[in-house]
Specification:
The protein has 247 residues and is an alpha/beta fold. The chain has 3 domains: 131 residues, Rossmann fold (3-Layer(aba) Sandwich), CATH 3.40.50; 50 residues, no CATH class; 42 residues, no CATH class. Helices cover 42% and strands 13% of the residues. The protein has 8 helices and 8 strands; from the N terminus they run βαβαβαββαααααβββ. The strands form 2 sheets. The chain has a 5-stranded parallel β-sheet with strand order 2-1-3-4-5, with helices on both faces. Strands 7-6-8 form a 3-stranded antiparallel β-sheet, with no helix packed on it. A hairpin with a 5-residue loop joins strand 6 and strand 7. Helix 1 packs across helix 4 and helix 2 runs parallel beside helix 3. The two termini are 35 Å apart.
């Protein structure tokens, strides 16, 4: 598990490295720590590497930093990369208001040695799911996209070109995205020995929902009773008060 630390405090960096060394003595998952000691180096590392499994970011990264340059690095990660972030700082008030919402992938903590041990354990639990290796630029999804590009797109791309020439306003990109996504999903459904992979019920429904409206097949929860139901009615026939349910 490769972690990035961006912090200009050499003493704190040593404390985290010691915590990593202790962690590695006890854990089957070994941590490799990559350290950036200033804003420019931290920004360069996340812009040139796509193999991190997590990052620990301080907010003030220069001697005269009064605004929290670490916010810029955090936004760069959240906008363009896919691994969890922990902010550990003595200046929690510097955290950009846009970044105040916390979840399992993003949290802001105060400074303290015990925080490093907690963060390493949190990163380990997330890493053990395989999510960072799946979604980084060298993961299985990227590999499948490459297969789709070379093995499948060549068969259908002439049809897309012809349709676009007939109807210039046609949104072929949306269709192509769905087409590619369908192929990626099918690759993931096939095992190494060319059989269907066993599936888990957690795969079938998306939460929180992407769609703002209720559609056929959605599971709904009634707010007044907390009962659950499944929508069997065709979407075109639905006429319900969406404020009374949550999907």
């Amino acid at each position: 598990m490769k972690l990035l630390l961006v912090d200009d405090d050499i003493k704190q960096n040593k404390i985290l490295q010691d915590a990593v060394d202790i962690f590695n003595l006890k854990s089957p998952i070994q941590v490799e720590l990559d350290i950036a000691t200033n804003y420019s180096d931290g920004l360069l590392k996340i812009q040139t590497s796509n193999t991190y499994d997590g990052a620990i970011i301080d907010l003030r990264l220069e001697n005269n930093d009064k605004v929290g340059l670490g916010n810029n690095i955090i936004k760069e990660i959240l906008n363009n990369l896919r691994f969890p972030v922990r902010v550990i700082t003595t200046h929690k008030g510097d955290l950009d208001p846009e970044l105040q919402t916390e979840n399992i992938l993003f949290k802001c903590r105060g400074r303290g040695e015990e925080e490093y041990h907690a963060v390493l354990n949190e990163f380990c639990k997330i890493y053990s799911t395989g999510i960072t290796s799946i979604l980084n630029n060298q993961g299985q999804i990227q590999s499948n996209i490459t297969k789709v590009f070379w093995k499948h797109i060549s068969e259908v791309l002439p049809e897309f070109i012809t349709q676009k020439e007939k109807v210039p306003a046609w949104d072929g990109e949306r269709v192509l995205l769905r087409y590619i996504s369908s192929h990626i999903l099918e690759y993931l459904e096939i095992s190494i020995d060319n059989n269907l992979e066993p599936v888990h019920n957690i795969e079938f429904y998306i939460k929180p929902p992407v769609k703002e409206k209720i559609f056929t097949g959605d599971i709904i929860k009634f707010k007044d009773t907390n009962n659950f139901g499944i929508v069997l009615t065709p979407a075109c026939d639905l006429a319900t008060d969406v404020n009374s349910v949550s999907s």
